[in-house]
Specification:
512 residues, mainly beta, Pectate Lyase C-like, 2 domains, seven-stranded antiparallel sheet, 40 strands, globular, Pectate lyase superfamily protein domain-containing protein, Pectin_lyas_fold, Pectin_lyase_fold/virulence
C-alpha cells in the first residue's frame, strides 16, 4: 500500500467511528440527500428538479486512479548558496526523457537539506515529479530568498482551450436542473462517447438584471457585471449518446434556463496542456523582513494549464499569498495533507489566500492553515464541481468560501475554522464582487458564524449541519439559503463527499 492510500483510509474511518457511537435518536439525514444501507444515494429534487450535485468526480483522474509513487531517476543534494540552477537543470534534463508507458518521465529527489532559491523554478513538461525527503524543519527545505514577490514553483503548460469550428449545438431543453447529467441538443450526430466538450452557459442582460448585479452600489473602482464576462465554460466529457440526448461525466452545477440564454455544447481541445506533474514531501519557506513585509515569496506552488496533477505532504510557511494556487486552466488536481502557515503580509485584500482554487474539478483535502485570510477559497467565475474536504483553519483573519464573483458548484465538507464561512452577495466589496456563488454547499462544517444566502435568481446555496452561529452577512435583505440542522449533531452521512465517492465506487470509496 502506498503512502497516498494509507493517508486516505484514515479520514473516512475516523468519521465512521465518530458517528457509530451515536444513538439512532441522535442521527439525522438531510431532506436533500439520503443514503440507503447499501450505500446508494437518493437525491431529493425541488419543484424544478434541482438537486445537490454529485461532487465525487474531482481531483487526480476524478478519483478513479490513486496518486502513484513515481520512481526516482535523478537525485540532488543541497548546495551552500544557490540551488536554483541545480534543480532547474535537473528538471530540464528529466524533461528530455521519453515518458514511460504511464506517461511519467520520472521523479527528481531532493535530499534532506536547505535549498536557497532566489527566483522561480519552472516545470513546463508533463510527467515530472519533484519530491523531497519530508516536510519537517530538518527535512527538505526550499527557501525563497531575496526581496522579490514571486511564485517559487510554477507548473504551467501553453495554449488555450479551443473550440472545434462548426461543432457548437444548442441545448433544446427549456430548463436543465442543477445536478442533471443529461440533456437534449439540436443534433448529436457529430458527437460520440469520449468526446471532450465544453458545456457553455452564456451570460445575458436578463440574468444580470434578475440577479440585481446591474445595480451594485458605486464606489471607487466598482466594476459592473457585463454579459460577455459571464460566459461560463464547463469542461466535460460525453459518456453516452442516445439519439439527441447527451450524457456527461460530471453534473450541471447551475441550472440552464432558456429565459437566461439556455446553453450549448461544443467539442474542445487544449493541445498545450500539461499532465501528470506532482510536488510532494517538501517544505517551503520564504525569507521576510517583518510580519507585514510584501517583498518576498508570494506563492509556494502554482498550477495552470495542466490536468491530472497533485500536491501532497508539503508545508509552506511565511508566504504572502498561498501554499497552492490552482489557476483557471488547472483541472483534476488533488492537493492533500498539506499546510499553509504563518503568512507574512499586510492583512488586507489580495493576500493570504492559503489554498486558492480558480480551476475546475479540483480537490483540496486534509489541509491545515494558520494566520490566513481566505483559507479555502475560489475566485471569479469558477466553474465546478470543486471540493474542499476535511480541512482546518486557525487564527483566521477573514472568511472561507467563494470570495469573488459567481463561483458555481463548490462543496465545503467538514471544514473547521475559528473564523467565518460565507456565501453571500458581497456588494461593492473589492471591484464590485456581487453574488459570490451558486450551488455552494456547506456540509457538516464548524465555524464561528456563517452567512449563507441564495441569489435572487438561478439557483440556491446550502448550509447543512453547521456547528456555529448564523448572521446576515454584508448586506441584509438577501434571500436566505437552504439552512438545515444548525448546531444539530449527528448528520448522516458525516461526509457528503465520501458518501458520494463510495456510492460511485463502493470498492474504493474509502481509499481515496
Amino acid at each position: 500500500m502506498t503512502i497516498h492510500l494509507r493517508q486516505h483510509v484514515v479520514v473516512p474511518t475516523i468519521i465512521a467511528l465518530t458517528f457509530s457511537f451515536q444513538s439512532p435518536a441522535d442521527k439525522w439525514e438531510s431532506k436533500f440527500v439520503s443514503v440507503a444501507p447499501s450505500g446508494t444515494i437518493q437525491y431529493h429534487p425541488d419543484e424544478k428538479g434541482n438537486t445537490i450535485p454529485d461532487f465525487s468526480k474531482v481531483g487526480y483522474y476524478q478519483g478513479d486512479q490513486p496518486i502513484p509513487d513515481v520512481p526516482v531517476v535523478k537525485t540532488i543534494s543541497a548546495s551552500d548558496e544557490n540551488s536554483q540552477s541545480i534543480i532547474q537543470n535537473a528538471i530540464d534534463e528529466i524533461a528530455s526523457r521519453t515518458p514511460d508507458k504511464n506517461g511519467f518521465r520520472g521523479t527528481i529527489l531532493l535530499k534532506k537539506g536547505v535549498y536557497k532559491i532566489p527566483g522561480t523554478l519552472r516545470i513546463t513538461t508533463s510527467g515530472i515529479v519533484l519530491r523531497g525527503e519530508g516536510e519537517g524543519e530538518q527535512d527538505t527545505k526550499l527557501i525563497a530568498t531575496g526581496n522579490t514577490q514571486r511564485t517559487l514553483i510554477d507548473i504551467a503548460g501553453t495554449g488555450n482551450m479551443e473550440e472545434r469550428p462548426g461543432s457548437r449545438v444548442a441545448i433544446t431543453d427549456e430548463y436543465v436542473p442543477t445536478g442533471a447529467t443529461s440533456f437534449h441538443v439540436e443534433s448529436a450526430t457529430n458527437f460520440k462517447a469520449g468526446d471532450k466538450i465544453i458545456l457553455f452557459r452564456p451570460g445575458t442582460d436578463a440574468w444580470i438584471k434578475d440577479l440585481q448585479m446591474d445595480a451594485i452600489e458605486e464606489r471607487g473602482g466598482t466594476k459592473k457585471w457585463k454579459p460577455k464576462e459571464y460566459d461560463l465554460r464547463y469542461e466535460r466529457e460525453i459518456t453516452k449518446i442516445e439519439g439527441n440526448t447527451v450524457t456527461i461525466d460530471n453534473p450541471v452545477v447551475m441550472s440552464l434556463e432558456k429565459q437566461y440564454g439556455g446553453g450549448a455544447i461544443f467539442q474542445s481541445r487544449f493541445t498545450g496542456r500539461l499532465s501528470k506533474v506532482g510536488i510532494e514531501q517538501l517544505r517551503f519557506e520564504s525569507a521576510f523582513t517583518s510580519d507585514t513585509a510584501e517583498d518576498h515569496g508570494w506563492t509556494a506552488i502554482q498550477f495552470d494549464k495542466i490536468e491530472n496533477g497533485w500536491v501532497r505532504n508539503v508545508t509552506a510557511r511565511y508566504f504572502g499569498y498561498a501554499c497552492v494556487h490552482l489557476r483557471d486552466h488547472a483541472k483534476w488536481i488533488t492537493v492533500t495533507n498539506s499546510r499553509c502557515l504563518d503568512a507574512k503580509s499586510k492583512i488586507t485584500g489580495g493576500r493570504r489566500y492559503s489554498f486558492c482554487n480558480d480551476g475546475q474539478q479540483n480537490l483540496v483535502m486534509n489541509c491545515h492553515t494558520t494566520e490566513g485570510r481566505h483559507d479555502y477559497v475560489t475566485g471569479a467565475r469558477v466553474c465546478g464541481p470543486n471540493v474542499f474536504y476535511n480541512c482546518t483553519a486557525k487564527q483566521a483573519h477573514s472568511d472561507i468560501g467563494p470570495h469573488h464573483r459567481w463561483a458555481s458548484g463548490t462543496l465545503y465538507d467538514n471544514i473547521i475554522t475559528d473564523g467565518d464561512i460565507n456565501i453571500q452577495d458581497r456588494g461593492n466589496w473589492g471591484s464590485g464582487h456581487g453574488w459570490a456563488g451558486v450551488t455552494q454547499v456547506l456540509w457538516n462544517c464548524s465555524a464561528k458564524r456563517a452567512a449563507v444566502q441564495s441569489p435572487w435568481a438561478n439557483g440556491k446555496n446550502y448550509c447543512i449541519g453547521l456547528m456555529g452561529g448564523k448572521f446576515t452577512g454584508r448586506l441584509s435583505g438577501r434571500p436566505d439559503g437552504e439552512w438545515e440542522g444548525q448546531n444539530k449533531q449527528g448528520l448522516q452521512p458525516g461526509s457528503l463527499f465520501i458518501a458520494q465517492l463510495k456510492a460511485r465506487k463502493p470498492e474504493t470509496g474509502s481509499k481515496r
